[in-house]
TrEMBL record:
Record keyword Transferase present: yes
A Pfam cross-reference name: AstA
A GO BP annotation: L-arginine catabolic process
Stretches that traverse the bilayer: none
Gene3D superfamilies per record: 2.40.40.20, 3.40.630.30
Coiled coil (residue ranges): none
Assigned keywords, A-Z: Acyltransferase, Arginine metabolism, Transferase
The keyword Acyltransferase is annotated on this UniProt entry: yes
Entry EC number(s): 2.3.1.109
GO molecular function per UniProt: arginine N-succinyltransferase activity
Name this protein carries in UniProt: Arginine N-succinyltransferase
Top class in the EC scheme: transferase
Length: 342
């Protein structure tokens, strides 16, 4: 059985291995020991803190295969981004150049450096080992964050964002990066990627263009990938779009991937989740449910057909194995969603 729980210091070796496996471009989980230890400590503190409004908290979860004890995935939420380390994006705009005398009207697209998402919550750090990418595991790993946010909405901003990985070439380098490197940064992509991953972002404010950039002046290869996602990210984007996330014109500085956003209360899995008491019994449900307990530091969640909602009694029927995995007793409350709904 696969179970989500908060990360602990004992998970460092597994987190280190996942950081290696995830490779370049996964900046929220860099292969950097000090940064990984910092993330674990920050998560432990965040889960333990008494919070009534979003601040500098980060909630990092691990997915554990209880049959082996292996950590096979991660998923996370940042409560309010950009409060201490700035979060930069390019905002896409359109400007009008008009000459009444010549009867000419030109609409020109621009990119402007901004910090417009400061203070928003961000879902991030989603990684699942390839051998487990089946049977709803990826879907669960994404949606379980919404169960946690639905249970503790006071800990998060009403606006939630997700940064999607942008398109790359055959060498794994974003076409959008090439012109930026030549004109402004003069460092290679792996170096910039690593600096971002370890939180060293001051070079962005120091070296990036401070004035709007006319998109039409960029190389064609760079223009074509603006707002486009990496081919491996298409399923994740479609899943978030079904949850209600939309692209409002903000893109990543280096790979031009879109940042999507939604209102927390309007996210489909948040709005449709139900919190009901548990009855423990032998059960085989028709649908695959994602179920979470309502604890904070002791948060546990899993998925499967050993759960079924009884509408007549307004109870969640759970198998003994399911209940044990989530540390639930008869009469405790649990929150669930249907993973089969597309």
């Amino acid at each position: 059985m696969l179970v989500i729980r908060p990360i602990t210091a004992a998970d460092f070796p597994a987190l280190k291995q996942i950081a290696i496996e995830s490779g370049p471009g996964f900046t929220s989980l860099p292969d950097h020991d000090a940064r990984l230890w910092q993330k674990i400590a920050h998560a432990e503190h965040s889960f333990a803190a008494a919070v009534d409004s979003p601040g500098d908290q980060g909630y990092l979860f691990v997915l554990e295969d209880q049959s082996t004890g292996d950590i096979v995935g991660t998923t996370g939420i940042e409560a309010a981004v950009g409060l201490h380390t700035p979060l930069y994006h390019f905002q896409q705009n359109t400007v009008m150049h008009h000459s009444a005398e010549l009867n000419v009207l030109n609409q020109l697209k621009t990119l402007t450096l901004c910090n417009d998402y400061t203070g928003t919550s961000e879902i991030c750090t989603l990684f699942l080992r390839e051998s487990y990418r089946r049977n709803h595991a990826g879907r669960f790993l994404s949606k379980v964050r919404f169960l946690f946010m639905a249970e503790y909405p006071q800990r998060f901003s009403e606006r939630v964002i997700a940064e999607m990985r942008g398109a790359t070439d055959e060498q794994g380098v974003p076409p959008f990066w090439n012109w930026l490197q030549q004109l402004f940064l003069t460092i290679d992509f792996p170096t910039a990627d690593k600096l971002i991953g370890v939180g060293k972002k001051s070079f962005i404010a120091e070296l990036m263009p401070r004035h709007p950039i006319y998109v039409g002046l960029l190389p064609q290869a760079a223009q074509q990938v603006i707002g486009k996602v990496h081919e491996n990210t298409i399923p994740a984007l479609k899943m978030l779009e079904k949850e209600g996330f939309r692209h409002r014109g903000y893109i990543d500085l280096f790979d031009a991937g879109p940042t999507v956003e939604a209102q927390l209360s309007e996210i489909r899995s948040v709005a449709q989740s139900r919190k009901v008491p548990v009855r423990i019994t032998d059960v085989s449900g028709e649908h695959t449910l994602a179920v979470a307990n309502t604890a904070l530091q002791g948060f546990r969640a899993s998925f499967g057909k050993g759960a079924r909602y009884c509408a007549e009694q307004q109870q969640l029927l759970l198998s003994p194995q399911f209940a044990t995995a989530l540390a639930l007793q008869e009469g405790d409350f649990a929150r669930f969603i249907n993973l089969d709904q597309r």
